[in-house]
Structure formats: C-alpha cells, structure tokens
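Lecture 7, part 2: worked example. A protein chain together with adenosine-5'-triphosphate.
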Amino acid sequence: MSTIIAASRAAATRVLPETPALRVDNVSHFYGARMALKDVSLTAPQAWFTALLGLNGAGKTTLFSLITRLYDTRAGAIQVQGYAVHRYPGEALRRLGVVFQARTLDLDLTVMDNLLYHAALHGMRRGEARARAQEVLVEIGLADRARDPARNLSGGQMRRVEIARALLHRPSLLVLDEPTAGLDIASKSAILRHVRLLVQERGVAVFWATHLLDEIEASDHVVVLHKGQVLAEGEAARIIAQSEAPDLRGAFTVLTEGAGT
Ligand code: ATP
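Predicted complex, written out as structure tokens:
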C-alpha cells in the first residue's frame, strides 16, 4: 500500500460520522405471533425534518412505543443522540420530546397546569417551569389561554399545547406520531409550519410519522415503512428519482408494489 493511500485511510478512520439524532438498528417487534416490525434500521439526522411514511398498520406506533420505552426493545437497538435507550434511558429520554398520537392532555387541568405537571416530571424547579411554560405558550400563540381548562381548547389548539409541552425541557429530538390526525386543513398546516420552524430556527431534529404524502417536502429525509419493514430511506427527491416515478405518491406505489402488495 502506498504511503499516500495509507495516510488517507488513517485520516478517514479518525473522522467519525456525525451522530444522528435518532438511530434504530435491526429492531424487530412481535405481538405474540404477529410481526409488527422486522429488522428495522433507520436514522433521523440532526436538525432535519424526517418523515416516517407508512400506511395504517405499517408499524409506526410500535416504533414510537419502542423509542419512548413504553415497550422494551427485545431485538435490535435504539439510540437517541448517541445514548442507547435501554442502557442509558435517563440520558436518552432527557433529549427526547414526544407527541403521541392519542390526546394526552388532562382535560380537567388548566393549560398552564398541564405544562407545569410535565415540567415537574422532568425535574424542573417551579419558578423555572412557570417561566418556561409562559415562553412556550407565547410561541404557540396561546398565552391568553393559560388559565383555561384544557377541555375548552379546539383539537388544533390542544395539539399545539402538546407540542409546547414536549418542548418544555428543550429536547434536541422531537418525535411526533401522526400529529395532524383529525385536524382541519388550517390547523394541520399551522402545526406543520410551526414544527418546520423548530427545525430551521432552533436546529431541533424532528421525526414525524405520517401517512399523508402532502406533509412531505422534497428535501425531507424520508423513511418508507411498510408492513413492518423499511423499503427506502433518504431524501424524498432522491427516493422519487430512484423509483423513476413522477412524484412521491408514484414512488410509494412503486416501492410497495415491489414489496409484493
Ligand atoms: P396506524 O397508522 O393505524 O396507527 P401504525 O403504522 O402505527 O398504524 P401499529 O399500530 O404499530 O401501526 O401496528 C403495526 C401492527 O401491529 C399492526 O398489524 C397492528 O395490528 C399490530 N398491533 C399493534 N398494536 C398491537 C397490540 N397491542 N397487540 C397486537 N397487535 C398489535
């Protein structure tokens, strides 16, 4: 081997690739005999919008349950900001904000108390929590609703509060499971716009599960999940080009038909 090649190889081994915000390696999950995820590997890059695209039953919620440690990962490994969730759950979960598919606000508590309760779970001191809660309510345009019981909010407003609550402890990775489900067009686009701004202006990494192709932009990082398996991963524009389809809808059809459905 020439000295130049040896030197360049040595240099290359010193350059570690950037740690992704989320890394899933060879994860499988079964409910009894039913396979929900099979050998799933994917990444969500730092400060980027990643869409987890899959139809109903693809396995998106199961993957979220594993990332958030609702279920134990029995096969494979999941890392949040380089921390394995099963080995360093505290470190991993501290860096993670979660918006679940089901509504999770306590409807009888005020908006502010919903936020303070969550802040307490993250060990924030009362004064800091209150200041931070006010800050996030201003950001989502609901500062004037702080004293209202959560049940008085519209579906879109509740979702915004859930996103604000997930951001209270300043996580660097925000995962959202079909966050626009059940919302009208205006609320959907307001939420998508807000989350995209978090990526652009704050450098938050977003992992957004959806079955809606129109929520995805050409520069997004996309993971196509189908029947528990990853069929493609990469920039949306690249997935479209590789499938030789005119758009993402066409690419999705090519991929899922190729997978035997
Ligand atoms: P949706 O968009 O409808 O929420 P999804 O992509 O989130 O779907 P999952 O809810 O993860 O998909 O479901 C993946 C597979 O696992 C499906 O076949 C589903 O029926 C099955 N499944 C999910 N939860 C359970 C459970 N608790 N017990 C048994 N099977 C389950």
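The pocket of adenosine-5'-triphosphate is lined by residues 31, 34, 36, 54, 56-62, 211 (CB under 6 Å). Residues 185-202 form the longest helix (18 residues). Keep this in mind for problem set question 3.
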